[in-house]
């Protein structure tokens, strides 16, 4: 089954691409259904579909706007994680996780590299799904900010696990030997935290904060 989906070079076969696209569509539909069942109206709404689709599209688009890119994967983007976090903040943890899962598959299709299914999970599926935990803080004061910070840290955990299991051999020769044990932590959180700081600064601007609150009101009508 693995050979049917993955090439010898670690890429995806045609069947692999088709499978990932199908799974992504299914997860996205499940996210919308979940959101609608937990909404006040209790039914699937066009508004929820539009906002989830727009958030995923904006996240995918801004992921291409890279302020800095590391040599072995990972980059500082223009607030791409924020849009998935917003969905979790608006519609809850479950919807945030499912939309994050679907978005993780889109990220995987951008430039797939497969060593094992668990590696794909750590680098893409679980990592981006973890952004959905931002919804846990939705009803708290400064819930978006708290949720965003925790979501970024949670995403980093999965990337770090994948780093320890699969990417230690890519550690640069000039990296201090005494710090070898923390290399995956340093590597992954270096770009995640830089993007987090940039995003936090942006959403803390009064005009942006007011704008996001207005968008939230529209999303929850």
Describe the protein's architecture and organization:
- It is a single chain.
- This protein is globular.
- Helix 3 (46-62) packs antiparallel against helix 4.
- The protein has helices spanning 2-5, 14-37, 46-62, 80-91, 93-110, 117-129, 143-166, 183-203, 206-219; strands at 66-69, 75-77.
- Strands 1-2 form a two-stranded antiparallel sheet.
- Helix content is 67%, strand content 3%.
- By secondary structure, it is mostly helical.
- Strand 1 and strand 2 form a beta hairpin.
- The longest helix has 24 residues, at 14-37.
Number of continuous helical runs: 9
Radius of gyration: 18 Å
Estimate the strand proportion: under 5%
Class of secondary structure makeup: mainly alpha
> How many strand elements?
2
Give average pLDDT, whole number. Answer: 86
Shape: globular
Query: Helix and strand succession?
Result: HHHEEHHHHHH
Q: Give the helix level as a range of percent.
A: 55-70%
What is the first-to-last residue Cα distance?
45 Å
Spatial sequence of strands, sheet with the most strands: 1-2
Q: State the major sheet.
A: 2 strands, antiparallel
Low-confidence stretches: none
Write a short abstract of this structure.
The protein has 221 residues and is mainly alpha-helical.
Layout of SSEs?
Layout: H1 2-5, H2 14-37, H3 46-62, E1 66-69, E2 75-77, H4 80-91, H5 93-110, H6 117-129, H7 143-166, H8 183-203, H9 206-219
Antiparallel strand pairs: 1-2
């Amino acid at each position: 089954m693995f050979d049917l989906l993955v090439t010898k070079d670690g890429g995806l076969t045609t069947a692999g691409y088709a499978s990932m696209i199908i799974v992504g569509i299914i997860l996205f539909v499940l996210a919308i259904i979940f959101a609608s069942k937990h909404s006040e109206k209790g039914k699937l709404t066009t508004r929820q579909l539009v906002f989830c689709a727009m958030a995923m599209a904006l996240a995918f688009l801004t992921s291409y706007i890279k302020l800095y890119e590391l040599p072995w994967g990972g980059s500082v983007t223009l607030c791409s994680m924020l849009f998935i976090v917003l969905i979790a903040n608006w519609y809850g943890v479950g919807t945030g996780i499912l939309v994050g899962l679907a978005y993780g598959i889109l990220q995987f299709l951008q430039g797939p590299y497969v060593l094992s299914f668990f590696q794909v999970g750590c680098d893409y599926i679980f990592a981006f799904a973890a952004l959905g935990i931002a919804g846990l803080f939705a009803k708290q004061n400064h819930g978006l900010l708290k949720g965003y910070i925790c979501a970024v840290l949670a995403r980093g955990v999965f990337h770090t696990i994948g780093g320890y299991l699969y990417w230690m051999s890519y550690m640069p020769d000039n990296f201090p030997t005494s710090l070898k044990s923390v290399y995956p932590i340093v590597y992954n959180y270096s770009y995640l935290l830089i993007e987090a700081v940039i995003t936090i600064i942006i959403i803390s601007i009064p005009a942006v904060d007011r704008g996001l609150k207005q968008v939230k009101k529209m999303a929850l009508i």
